[in-house]
Structure formats: C-alpha cells, structure tokens
Amino acid sequence: MASLKLTPLSALRTSTYHIPAHGHIPNTTLSPHPLLIYHGAFPSSPSLSASAIESHLTRVGVVAPKWRYTMYSQSHFHSTTHELLVVATGRARLFFGGDGNPDGVQLEVSKGDAMLLPAGVAHRLLEDLGGEGGNFEMVGSYPVGAKEWDMCYGDGRPGEDHGKVKERIQALSWFKRDPLYGSEGPALRI
C-alpha cells in the first residue's frame, strides 16, 4: 500500500478549543492542552481509506489504531488516555464539551480531518451528514502503551468517582511526537 500524503505543515489549518468543565465533565480544565482539530490533514482522494489511515498511524508509531466506527450519540469522555480520531469516510456534526454546556463546541468534520482529544473532553455525534443510512466512519487511536480507554459520562453513575477520574487525567503525559506528523506538528506546539 502506497503511503498517504499528508497536507504539508505549512499549508495545514488547525483549530484549538479550550473547553471549560461542565458538571462532572472536566473537558480541558485538567490539561494545558486544548482540543486540536487538523482540518484536511489527509487530502481527500480515492486512496484515503480506513486501512490507509491505520497504516500511516502505525508507521508514525505515536498512536495505535484500535477501532473503526462512527461516534456514539451519547456524550462521553475518557480518563485513562488521550484519543486521536481521523475521519475515514463521510462527514458529520459533532459536539464537544458535554450536553447542555453553553461553552461547548459544535463542529462539522469530513473525510481527512483529524481530532486530538485530551483526556476528559466529552464528545458525541450530533448528526451523520452522509445522507440516508449515513456513511460517517472514523479510525480511533490511542497513544502506544496507553492504558485501555474507559468510558465516562460525568453523570455520577456507579464506578465513576469524580476524584479518581481527575487523578487519572492529571497523571497522563502529553505527546513527545505528533501522532500524524511525527517529529514536527501541531500537537507539539499547543
């Protein structure tokens, strides 16, 4: 399989969002790092597929691809690891920050976009914009050597101790290499 071409760093457009805590959802308040969006990190082309994205991420070696799926429609976050999501097909409207959060962020993402979520950032699917039946799919990846991801909802359910969630998030280290670009890249500058 041929290597995927990334958008050159000099032409890459990124967006960052610091999202305040909302209820028991920490969002970016426990991390100095914002939600990072890489717009069009992979230029859309016929060779852009979930398999090609997984091969690229494996070659860079910062994150390990773990799944292919859409995004859950219920707000959730992870306290044991950061997460990289890369859109392999389709487009969708997503919400970051937790339901009812007036400072939450609604974004439309499409094939080739990537999102780097610090642990604690709530996220959910609002709408698959792929038409009838939808076709929105992402590759979900986590730092190499990271603990298995957990599912937290910030709603006080049994087993979701707010203090322990906070401790786990604060104990995580940030990336020493960018998950898409390696030795250079936006994750190292935020």
UniProtKB/TrEMBL annotation:
Gene3D superfamilies: Jelly Rolls. It holds the Pfam family Cupin_1. Residues 75-123 form the Cupin type-1 domain. Transmembrane segments: none annotated. InterPro entries: Cupin_1, RmlC-like_jellyroll, RmlC_Cupin_sf, UCP019307_cupin, YjiB-like. It comes from the Eukaryota. This is Cupin type-1 domain-containing protein.
